Amino acid sequence: MTNEKLTAGSHRLAIVILNWNGKAMMQEYLPSVINNSSAEADIYVADNASSDDSIAMLEHHFPQVRLIRLDKNYGFAEGYNRALRQIEAEYYLLLNSDVRVPQNWISPLLAFMDAHPEAAACQPKMLSIHHPESFEYAGASGGFLDRLGYPFCRGRIFTTVEEDKGQYDNIVEVGWASGACLLIRAADYWQAGGLDGRFFAHCEEIDLCWRLRTMGRKVFCVPDSHVYHLGGGTLPKGNSRKTFLNFRNNLTMIYKNMSDDRLRSVMRLRWALDWLAAFEMLILGRNVGDFVAVYKGRKAFHQWKHDFDADRKRIQDHRVTSDENILKPYSILWQYYLKRKKCFSTI
Known about the structure:
Layout: E1 13-19, H1 23-37, E2 42-47, H2 54-61, E3 66-69, H3 75-84, E4 91-95, E5 99-100, H4 106-115, E6 119-128, E7 143-145, E8 151-153, E9 156-157, E10 160-161, E11 172-173, E12 181-185, H5 186-191, H6 204-214, E13 218-229, H7 240-257, H8 260-283, H9 288-304, H10 309-317, H11 332-338
Parallel strand pairs: 1-2, 1-4, 2-3, 6-13
Antiparallel strand pairs: 4-12, 5-13, 6-12, 7-8, 9-10, 11-13
Helix pairs in contact: 1-2, 6-7, 7-8, 7-9, 8-9
């Protein structure tokens, strides 16, 4: 791995795909990115020390793609940080290796960002590859956080994924944009400190967007652009490692970013709700692995939370926007389970 910047590309946008043993997915989906993006962007693949011949395949079949070789698997967050430090561009577009893109998908995103300097980042509408009439779980039509720090989306709340009928086709300011397809200004990315490499994977883009919004910057969903996402390519849904990372990182994200006046009360509630979720997994789902993953996730959070004290102080000291303007005022658990509101449009 080189520490030097790569030669600046001919475009102001760099599409950066992080890969770890994703040879098959890149063979399937990278052609759409090259065919529908190369006129507007330089395309990079940053490889997290794959062992599946990804590099050889890329060099042979896709020589036009710029390669960044990392010396080990740094995970999603730190892998991107190390790759992006080597790229000169006005905009970065972080793109998962399991995303298929149509023609003219970039122009609406760039046009919006150029016209709205207050925007730090945006995402397109994300649809499912297997069910293109439906939203995709990871991002849908823009993400939000409820008052307790639980993430949800326009088009997806918990396990309920809506059919796309154009109901969320308006451009809207959101709480967070999906890291599966995230367009962000390079200046904002580094001003906010980039992705938190300690997270390894999961919640890292939500944490970044929360920091950006606390700084007074804005995040949007621009549904004039849409892409198709496979999802679950590295850690599929139901994987206990994914459960562990989601619980540990979500709590860490709250600890870092939530304002002083609400942090303690929210953490008390989250203790009760996390254990309720764990026992539901154990008793109703008969899933011992996920139950243990919740326990380990909470334990890992308490073991390392003070490693983030300096981050928390810096974020709170430089806060411009209050959590009242960042978090939704309601509990999504209450809306979904007790009021039976399964669709974003009904809340």
